[in-house]
Write a structure and sequence with these properties.
Blueprint lengths: L1 H7 L17 E2 L5 E5 L4 H6 L6 H12 L8 E4 L13 H18 L3 E5 L1 H8 L5 H4 L4 E3 L2 E6 L2 H5 L3 H18 L8 H4 L2 H5 L4
Parallel strand pairs: 2-3, 2-4, 4-6
Antiparallel strand pairs: 1-3, 5-6
Length: 200
């Protein structure tokens, strides 16, 4: 994939100076479901693959609960290089990586994009509200559907309520794929947060 080759040599932000590997993405190029996380952690940086640690194991478990496997999906992050110390990605780093993410979405062309946590959700929906308020529903987005949920790391910190919420959101993903979710109303589809999106 030409886009992945471009990312592998990217020096558009300072994260290029501290990374071990570019963590571009992993999964099926024909996936109906695409997950977008925040950024690689230590294990991901070492292996060059997204969600390979404990958060990835939880993601695999949640997928199995709705009858999917990791190999059925495509997984990536907002930024492709690990922020030092696993700090939050900075605005300039997100901007530097944004074209890679939009290219991935265009190439994979998923039916559903699941945003994991605040950074991915705010970037795609252009929303300032946090994930707690945005999760639990499907958003129309450029002829696709965005379903926000918590980052798996939040559930791993020991909150049973977060895990239960994630299970509800994954059930919504399954219902959307199965056509059991009614299309959003016209007023929702015209919401500025939807129309601007990543490609706005």
């Amino acid at each position: 994939m030409l886009l992945a080759e471009q990312a592998a040599t990217c020096t558009a932000c300072g994260l290029a100076e501290t990374r071990t590997n570019v963590v571009f993405g992993d999964g099926s190029v024909r996936a109906q479901v695409m997950f977008v996380g925040e950024g690689p952690g230590r294990n991901e940086d070492l292996q060059g693959l997204p969600f390979v640690g404990a958060a990835g194991q939880l993601l695999n478990r949640l997928l199995s609960e709705i009858g999917l496997q990791r190999s059925d999906t495509y997984i990536t992050n907002v930024v492709k290089c690990r922020p030092p110390g696993n700090r939050d990605p900075r605005p300039d780093e997100i901007t530097a990586c944004k074209d890679f993410l939009s290219g991935q979405i265009r190439l994979i062309d998923p039916v559903v994009v699941v945003t994991l946590g605040n950074f991915a959700t705010k970037l795609l929906l252009r929303e300032e509200r946090g994930i707690t308020r945005l999760r639990g529903r499907a958003y129309p987005w450029w002829n696709r559907t965005v379903i926000p949920t918590f980052h798996p790391a939040a559930a791993l910190r020991g909150s049973a309520s977060v895990l239960a919420s994630m299970q509800e959101d994954f059930a919504l993903v399954k219902a959307t794929l199965d056509g059991r979710v009614e299309p959003p109303s016209e007023s929702e589809a015209e919401h500025p947060a939807v129309q601007l999106g990543l490609f706005g």
